[in-house]
Specification:
- The complex is a heterodimer of chains A (555) and B (701).
- By secondary structure, chain A is α/β, with parallel strands linked by helices.
- Chain A is built from 20 helices and 18 strands.
- In chain A, the strands form three sheets. In chain A, strands 11, 12, 13, 14, 15, 16, 17 and 18 form an eight-stranded mixed beta sheet that branches.
- In chain A, helix 17 packs across helix 18.
- The longest helix of chain A has 17 residues.
- Chain A is elongated, with a radius of gyration of 28 Å.
- In chain B, the strands form nine sheets. In chain B, strands 13-12-9-10-11-14-21-19 form an eight-stranded antiparallel beta sheet, sandwiched between helices. In chain B, strands 24-25-26-27-28-29-30-31 form an eight-stranded antiparallel beta barrel. A five-stranded parallel beta sheet of chain B has the order 3-2-1-4-5.
- Chain B has 701 residues and is α+β, with helices and mostly antiparallel strands.
- The chains are: A alpha/beta (555), B alpha+beta (701).
- At the A-B interface, helix 4, helix 11 and strand 10 of A face strand 23, helix 18 and strand 36 of B.
- Chain B: This is Carbamoyl-phosphate synthase L chain, ATP binding domain-containing protein.
Chain lengths: 555, 701
C-alpha cells in the first residue's frame, strides 16, 4: 500500500488523482495483489520512484494553482478582477470542478519562450456543475502571458468544447485575454480558427455562453460573437476588433477603451453584448442563474424547476393594464412579469433596441422565452435593431426547444430613409424568417395593436403560430384608422364618419377571430392559465422536417 | 321598522371616502351614484357604485370641483341627496347653496353655519361668544407691523402669526420676541397673499408642546346635539395628520366632558347640523383652546366608529333626511382603543409625493372575529396613483381592548401591508408606532420634529433586530438555494426524486446590509437544513455569534411577498417576525422589515473572501438629461427652466406614429435648460431637457 499522507494536500480529492495516471491507485485495498513483488527503486531522498513522481506531480499542481505567480495575481486583484481559478470556483458548485489539462505547457521555442513557461498555459479548463447540472467551462488566466492564446491554450479549449458536444452540456467561456500569443505566430491564429470552427459546429447543439471579464480584442472577439450569449463586466471588460491606438492611427479618432468597446458601448449601442454586470462576483452569480434557464443541449427539453407560483392564478389587474386611450403607452414588462412564474424575468439585451423586449422566464416551472413589443419605447415599432435583436433570440429558442410566447402591440415598421437605406427590408426579414421557421411551441397574445406587415411577422397564425389569442383590446388591421380612411376615402372631404366606421370594423379583434386568424379572444386575467394549459398540450408538438442541407436565412 | 331616508344619493368625491360612503349607503339600501374624472374611469368607487357619471378631465377644477358638472350628474341620475365626503366641495357653501336651489339635499351642515365656521377669524369670534375656550389673541385683522407688536405685547410671547384664510401651515410664523414679530408679519403676509390671494393675518398666543385633540359632534335639525369621545391627532408633519388615536391618553373624564360640552354649545349656538369636528389644542396641564371647526366628515372618523360602534356616515344621512338623533348624550359609551395610520404614496424621508401603478398590493386582514384591522381604501392592485389627486393610499385603523393591544395590531398590520410600485410612508408609520415614546403616550404635535431632528432615515437595526433580519434572510436564501436544485431536464413534472435531490444542507453565509445608522453590517450565519424535502414548513437552524442557536421556519411560498417567520430557541422562547420579500437582487434580495426596506447581499464563504477584491464604484448619474426616445414631434413641455421636479413627474410628451410618449423625470432635479419647443421635431436620443448637477441644487424648503 502506498503512503500518501503528506502528499495529498494538493490533491483536490482522490478521484481526480486517479485520472492523472492509471498506474497510481489510491484504493485502500487493491483487489488483486501483485504476484511478483519487485523491490521498489529508491532515490537519494530515500523515497520510492512512485513517491518521487507523486511529489513532482504535486509540485506541478501546486504551481498550476498560482498561474502567473503571486505578483501578477495581486495586480489582477488590484484591478478588481478575480483570477481564472477563483472565477471557476464561484461559477461551479463547490467541489464540483474536474480540471482537464492542468499540466499543459506551450511548445514555443522562439524568442526565448522555451525558458518562459507557465503550467496550464494561461487557461483553466474542465467541467463541473451549476446547481447540480453539468457544464463545461474554460477560464482564461490573464496572469499567465496576459491570457494570450497559444496553440496549446487553444487546444485545451477545443478539448472541452469537443467533450461538451459529445455529452451534450453547455460551454461557458470566461474570457480574459490580451489576444494572440504573438511569439507563436500563425500557430496562434490557427488556434483561434480551431475554436471558431467548434463554436460553429456546437451552435444549435449545446448552448454556448461567453462572459467577457477582461480584454478581448482582435480575432479573439469572434469566438464570443459566434456563441449564443455574450455578457460583460462593467468597467473591466472590453471587446473590439482594433484597439484605440490603431483607431487613432487609421481614422485619427481619439477614443478610450471604455468608449470603444466597454460594456456600455456593446449593451447600448452595438448590441454585441446581451447584458452587463457590476463586477466579477455579480456577473458569475448571474451566469449561474442564467444557465438554470437553459436546456443542456438540443437533445433535451427546456428544463423545469420547482415553483410555488400557482398555475391557475388569475391576475385581475391585467384587465385594466391597457390604457383606455389607445395612443397611451404602457410597460410591456409589467404584463410579462404578471404572466410568468414569480415575476422573474431574465431580460436579454435590456438596454439595446428597447422597443422590443426579449428574455427568459418560467411558466409552471418550465423555461419559456418571451418576445414582446414595448409600447413604452417608440410605440413598440419594429425597426432594424429590434428585428435583429428578436430574430437571433427566436432562433436560439427554436434550436433549443424553448417555447416562444409573443406579446404583440406593434404599430408597424418604422418608416424613414434611415431605416430604408440601412436595409429594414433585409433586417426585418430576419425576424419574419426566424418566426416562420421556428417549430417549437409558439403562443401569441395580441394585447393591442397588430398593424400591417408587423402583424404577420409577430408570430401570427399564418407563420404556424400554434395558439393565437387576442385580448379584447386587440386591434388587428392593415393600419390605424386615420391613415386607412385617408386612402380608402381619398376623395371625400369629411372623413370623420368613415373613420368611426373603420374603428368599429377593425379596432377590435372580432374580424380576425371570424376568420380563425386568432383562436380565441380571452380576458387578460386568464392569460397565464391558458398559456400554461397550451404549453402542456404542445409539449409533444412535432412537425415533419423537410430535408435541406441548411436554410438560407437572410443575413 | 327602518325609517326611509333616500332612494338614491350621489357621492361628490372619489377614492377611499367615496368607497366608504357607498358601503354605508348599500347597508342602508340606498342606491349610489359615483362621479369620476377620466383618470378614475376604472376606479374602485366607480365599480362599486350603482351608477357612475363622468364629470370631466383629470384636473380637479374641471371635474370634482366643477359644480355645473356635478349638478348635471345629479339631474341625469335623479339623485336626491349629495354626500360630499371630505375635501373637494365638502366645505364649499356656494355648492351647498346651488344644491339648495336645485332642491337637492346636501348631506352635511347648512350653508350659513358652514360659511360662518369656515372662516378662521369668524369662527373664533363665534366660538368665544358660545363660551368656548379660545386661544388668547386678537379677534380681528392685524393692520400693520406696529399693530402686530402691540397685540403681541398684550398677549405675551410666544405668539403665532397666521393667515386668516390659511391652512396647511402656509402663512404661519411663530415669534418669541419683537424682532421675530416684525419679520414674521412680513413673511406671513407675503405667503398668505401668494397662497390664498388674501393677506389678512391674525395673531394669537402660541401654545408650546401642544396636543391636537378634537371632539366629534353630531347634531340634528331639531336642536339636538351630542358629542362623541375625542380623537388625538398629535402626530403630524407640517400640520398634516399622520397618526390618530381614540380616545386620547391625555384626557381625564372631566376634561373630556368640559371639551364635549363646549363643542356642543358651539354647535347649538350656530344651529349647526350633521357631523362635525371641533378641534382643540390641549396643553400639558390639560388647558384646552379652540382651534377650528371642521364642518364635514373628518378623514380620521373610523377610529371614533371603532370605539363607539356608531356609523357616522349613516348618522349624517339620517340627519339630512330630517330624522332625529336616535341617541342621547348618556347613551354614548366607548370601549377599547383605536389607532389610525394614514398610508400615503410619499417618500417618508423627503415628504415628496410618489406616483405610479401599484404593481403589488395586499391589504392586511383581521385575524380574529373582533375585526381588529380596518382598511379604508379606494384602490386595488394595478390602480394608478396619479399626480392629480391626494396621494392617500389607505387609512389603516386597528382596534384593541387596550391601547397597547391596538398598537400591537397596528404593528402587525403595517408589517403585513404589501405595497409595491410607489414609494410609501409605511417605514415612518411603523417606526412611530413601534417607538417607546409613542407607546408611552408622551406625544405632542412636535413629536416628529423632536424624534427625527435630521429627518427620518428609516429603521436603524440594533443587535436583536439585526439578528432577526439576518435569520429571516438566511431562511429565504436557503429555501431559494434548495429550490434551485429541484429541477428536471426533460421538462416533465417534478417527482419526489427531484424534490429530494442532493441539495445543500449547510450554508456558511455572510450577510451584508446597509444599516440606516450609516453602518454596513456584515453578519456571519451558519445555516443547517433540518428537513429533507423542499416544503413550506421546512426548518433551518441558524447560528450567529453571541446568539443562541435558533430554529427558523416560515410560511413563505417561494418568491411571494409575505414572510411569516417563527424564530424558536428550543426549550426557551419563540417569537414571530413578519417581513416582506420585495425583489430579488443580483446577489441577494430586498426585504422589508420593521417597515423599512433593506437591500441584503448574501455571499457564501468563497464569495465573501473574494468580495474584498471588488472595487466599490461611484454611482453614475445618467439622469441629468431627458432624451427623446425616438424621432417624433414634441407635443408639450410640462416644465420651465428653474422648476424643481420630483421623480416620476411628467416633463414632456413626444408624439411619433400617432402615439404619445410621456417622458418623466428619473430623479428629483432642477431644470437647467430646455432645448425644444412644443411642435418642434426631435431625433432619437436628442437631448431635450437638462437638469442641474445634484450638488448645485438647493435643498427643498
Amino acid at each position: 500500500m502506498h503512503k500518501i499522507g503528506p502528499f495529498t494536500r494538493f490533491l483536490s480529492r482522490p478521484s481526480s488523482v486517479s485520472r492523472i495516471s492509471p498506474i497510481i491507485s489510491f484504493n485502500a485495498k487493491p483487489i488483486v495483489k501483485p504476484v511478483v513483488t519487485i523491490q521498489p527503486r529508491r532515490y537519494a531522498s530515500g523515497r520510492t520512484k512512485e513517491e518521487e513522481t507523486l511529489a513532482r506531480i504535486e509540485k506541478l499542481r501546486a504551481q498550476a494553482q498560482l498561474g502567473g505567480g503571486h505578483t501578477r495575481i495581486e495586480t489582477q486583484h488590484k484591478k478588481g478582477k478575480l483570477t481564472a481559478r477563483e472565477r471557476v470556483e464561484l461559477l461551479l458548485d463547490s467541489d464540483s470542478f474536474n480540471e482537464y489539462d492542468t499540466f499543459v505547457e506551450h511548445q514555443c521555442t522562439d524568442f526565448g519562450m522555451d525558458k518562459n513557461k507557465v503550467i496550464g498555459d494561461g487557461v483553466v479548463t474542465g467541467h463541473g456543475t451549476i446547481n447540480g447540472r453539468r457544464v463545461f467551462v474554460f477560464s482564461q488566466d490573464f496572469t499567465a502571458f496576459g491570457g494570450s492564446l497559444s496553440k496549446m491554450h487553444a487546444r485545451k479549449i477545443c478539448k472541452i468544447m469537443d467533450k461538451a458536444m459529445l455529452v451534450g452540456a453547455p460551454v461557458i467561456g470566461l474570457n480574459d485575454s490580451g489576444g494572440a500569443r504573438i511569439q507563436e505566430g500563425v500557430d496562434s491564429l490557427a488556434g483561434y480558427a480551431e475554436i471558431f470552427q467548434r463554436n460553429v459546429l456546437s451552435s444549435g447543439v449545446v448552448p454556448q455562453i461567453s462572459l467577457i471579464m477582461g480584454p478581448c480584442a482582435g480575432g479573439a472577439v469572434y469566438s464570443p460573437a459566434l456563441t449564443d450569449f455574450t455578457f460583460m463586466v462593467r468597467d473591466t471588460s472590453y471587446l473590439f476588433v482594433t484597439g484605440p491606438d490603431v483607431v487613432k492611427a487609421v481614422t485619427n479618432e481619439d477614443v478610450t477603451q471604455e468608449e470603444l468597446g466597454g460594456a456600455n458601448a456593446h449593451t447600448v449601442k452595438s448590441g454585441v453584448a446581451h447584458a452587463a454586470f457590476e463586477n466579477d462576483i455579480e456577473a458569475i452569480q448571474r451566469i449561474r442563474d442564467f444557465t438554470d434557464f437553459l436546456p443542456l443541449s438540443n437533445r433535451e427539453q427546456a428544463p423545469r424547476r420547482y415553483s410555488d407560483d400557482s398555475t391557475d392564478r388569475e391576475d385581475q389587474s391585467l384587465n385594466h393594464i391597457i390604457p383606455v386611450d389607445s395612443t397611451k403607452a404602457y410597460d410591456m414588462r409589467e404584463i410579462i412579469s404578471r404572466l410568468i412564474d414569480d415575476g422573474h424575468f431574465f431580460e436579454i439585451m435590456p438596454d439595446y433596441a428597447k422597443n422590443i423586449v426579449i428574455g427568459f422566464a418560467r411558466m409552471a416551472g418550465k423555461t419559456v422565452s418571451i418576445v414582446g413589443n414595448q409600447p413604452l419605447v417608440s410605440s413598440g415599432v419594429l425597426d432594424i435593431n429590434s428585428s435583429v435583436k428578436a430574430a437571433r433570440f427566436v432562433r436560439f429558442c427554436d434550436a433549443f426547444n424553448i417555447p416562444i410566447i409573443t406579446l404583440v402591440d406593434v404599430p408597424g415598421f418604422l418608416p424613414g430613409t434611415a431605416q430604408e437605406h440601412n436595409g429594414i427590408i433585409r433586417h426585418g426579414a430576419k425576424l419574419l424568417y426566424a418566426y416562420a421557421e421556428a417549430t417549437v411551441p409558439k403562443i401569441t397574445i395580441i394585447t393591442r395593436k397588430a398593424y400591417g406587415g408587423a402583424y404577420d411577422v409577430m408570430s401570427s397564425k399564418h407563420l404556424r403560430g400554434d395558439m393565437n389569442y387576442s385580448w379584447p383590446t386587440g386591434e388587428i388591421a392593415v393600419m390605424g384608422a386615420k391613415g386607412a380612411v385617408e386612402i380608402i376615402f381619398r376623395h371625400v372631404q369629411d372623413r370623420t364618419q368613415s373613420e368611426h366606421e373603420y374603428i368599429d370594423k377593425f379596432a377590435n379583434p372580432i374580424p380576425a377571430a371570424q376568420r380563425g386568424f386568432i383562436d380565441d379572444i380571452i380576458l387578460p386575467c386568464v392569460t397565464r392559465k391558458r398559456i400554461i394549459e397550451d404549453l402542456a398540450v404542445l409539449a409533444r408538438k412535432k412537425l415533419p422536417e423537410i430535408y435541406k442541407k441548411h436554410d438560407n436565412c437572410p443575413l | 321598522m327602518e325609517r326611509k331616508t333616500f332612494d338614491k344619493i350621489l357621492i361628490a368625491n372619489r377614492g377611499e371616502i367615496a368607497v366608504r360612503v357607498i358601503k354605508t349607503a348599500k347597508k342602508m339600501g340606498i342606491k349610489t351614484v359615483a362621479i369620476y374624472s377620466d383618470a378614475d374611469a376604472r376606479s374602485l368607487h366607480v365599480i362599486l357604485a350603482d351608477e357612475a357619471v363622468r364629470v370631466g378631465p383629470p384636473p380637479t377644477n374641471q371635474s370634482y370641483l366643477s359644480v355645473p358638472a356635478i349638478l348635471n350628474a345629479i339631474e341625469e341620475t335623479g339623485a336626491e341627496a349629495v354626500h360630499p365626503g371630505y375635501g373637494f366641495l365638502s366645505e364649499n357653501s356656494h355648492f351647498v347653496k346651488s344644491l339648495d336651489e336645485a332642491g337637492v339635499t346636501f348631506i352635511g351642515p347648512g350653508e350659513k353655519a358652514m360659511a360662518d365656521l369656515g372662516d378662521k377669524i369668524q369662527s373664533k369670534i363665534i366660538a368665544k361668544n358660545s363660551g368656548v375656550n379660545t386661544i388668547p389673541g386678537f379677534d380681528g385683522v392685524v393692520k400693520n407691523t406696529d399693530h402686530a407688536l402691540e397685540i403681541s405685547h398684550s398677549i405675551g410671547y410666544p405668539v403665532m402669526i397666521k393667515a386668516s384664510a390659511g391652512g396647511g401651515g402656509k402663512g404661519m410664523r411663530i415669534a418669541w420676541n419683537d424682532q421675530e414679530v416684525i419679520e414674521g408679519f412680513k413673511l406671513a403676509s407675503q405667503e398668505s397673499k401668494s397662497s390664498f390671494g388674501d393677506d389678512r393675518l391674525l395673531i394669537e398666543k402660541y401654545i408650546d408642546n401642544p396636543r391636537h385633540i378634537e371632539i366629534q359632534i353630531l347634531a340634528d335639525k331639531f336642536g339636538n346635539a351630542l358629542y362623541l369621545p375625542e380623537r388625538e391627532c398629535s402626530i403630524q408633519r407640517r400640520n398634516q395628520k399622520v397618526i390618530e388615536e381614540a380616545p386620547s391618553v391625555h384626557l381625564d373624564p372631566s376634561t373630556r366632558k368640559a371639551m364635549g360640552e363646549q363643542a356642543v354649545s358651539l354647535v347649538k349656538h350656530v344651529g349647526y347640523v350633521s357631523a362635525g369636528t371641533v378641534e382643540f389644542l390641549v396643553d400639558p396641564e390639560r388647558n384646552f383652546y379652540f382651534l377650528e371647526m371642521n364642518t364635514r366628515l373628518q378623514v380620521e372618523h373610523p377610529i371614533t366608529e371603532y370605539i363607539t360602534g356608531i356609523d357616522l356616515v349613516e348618522q349624517m344621512i339620517r340627519i339630512a333626511a330630517d330624522q332625529k338623533l336616535s341617541m342621547k348624550q348618556d347613551d354614548i359609551k366607548f370601549k377599547g382603543w383605536a389607532v389610525e395610520s394614514r398610508v400615503y404614496a410619499e417618500d417618508p424621508e423627503k415628504y415628496l409625493p410618489s406616483i405610479g401603478r401599484l404593481s403589488k398590493y395586499i391589504e392586511p386582514v383581521s385575524l380574529t372575529d373582533k375585526h381588529e384591522v380596518r382598511c379604508d381604501s379606494g384602490i386595488v392592485e394595478g390602480s394608478e396613483i396619479s399626480i392629480y389627486y391626494d396621494p392617500l393610499i389607505c387609512k389603516l385603523s386597528t382596534y384593541g381592548e387596550t391601547r397597547s393591544e391596538a398598537i400591537q395590531n397596528m404593528e402587525r398590520a403595517l408589517d403585513s401591508y404589501v405595497i409595491k410600485g410607489v414609494t410609501h410612508n409605511i417605514p415612518l408609520l411603523r417606526e412611530v408606532i413601534g417607538s417607546s415614546r409613542f407607546k408611552s403616550g408622551k406625544i405632542s404635535t412636535k413629536f416628529l420634529a423632536e424624534e427625527y431632528p435630521g429627518g427620518f432615515k428609516g429603521h436603524a437595526l440594533k443587535d436583536e433586530s439585526l439578528f432577526e433580519l439576518a435569520s429571516v434572510a438566511s431562511l429565504v436564501h436557503a429555501k431559494r438555494d434548495v429550490r434551485n436544485w429541484c429541477w428536471r431536464d426533460n421538462g416533465e413534472a417534478l417527482s419526489e426524486k427531484e424534490l429530494n435531490r442532493n441539495a445543500p444542507k449547510n450554508w456558511n453565509l455572510w450577510i451584508k446590509v446597509h444599516n440606516n445608522n450609516g453602518n454596513v453590517e456584515i453578519i456571519n450565519v451558519l445555516v443547517e437544513r433540518r428537513s429533507t424535502v423542499l416544503q413550506h414548513k421546512d426548518e433551518y437552524q441558524v447560528k450567529v455569534a453571541n446568539h443562541p442557536p435558533t430554529i427558523v421556519n416560515a410560511q413563505w411560498p417561494l418568491e411571494s411577498p409575505l414572510i411569516n417567520a417563527q424564530l424558536r430557541i428550543p426549550n426557551q422562547s419563540e417569537r414571530f417576525v413578519t417581513a416582506q420579500y420585495l425583489d430579488p437582487l443580483p446577489v441577494g434580495f430586498r426585504l422589508q422589515y420593521m417597515g423599512t426596506k433593506f437591500d441584503i447581499t448574501i455571499h457564501n464563504q468563497r464569495q465573501h473572501e473574494l468580495s474584498h477584491y471588488m472595487i466599490e464604484k461611484p454611482k453614475k448619474d445618467l439622469s441629468k438629461v431627458i432624451l427623446s426616445p425616438m424621432p417624433g414631434s414634441v407635443v408639450s413641455i410640462a416644465v420651465n427652466v428653474g422648476d424643481i421636479v420630483n421623480e416620476g413627474v411628467e416633463v414632456a410628451v413626444v408624439e411619433a406614429m400617432k402615439m404619445q410618449n410621456v417622458l418623466r423625470a428619473s430623479r428629483v432635479g432642477k431644470v437647467k435648460k430646455i432645448n425644444v419647443k412644443p411642435g418642434s421635431s426631435v431625433a432619437a436620443d436628442e437631448v431635450m431637457i437638462e437638469f442641474e448637477d445634484e450638488k448645485d441644487e438647493k435643498p427643498f424648503d
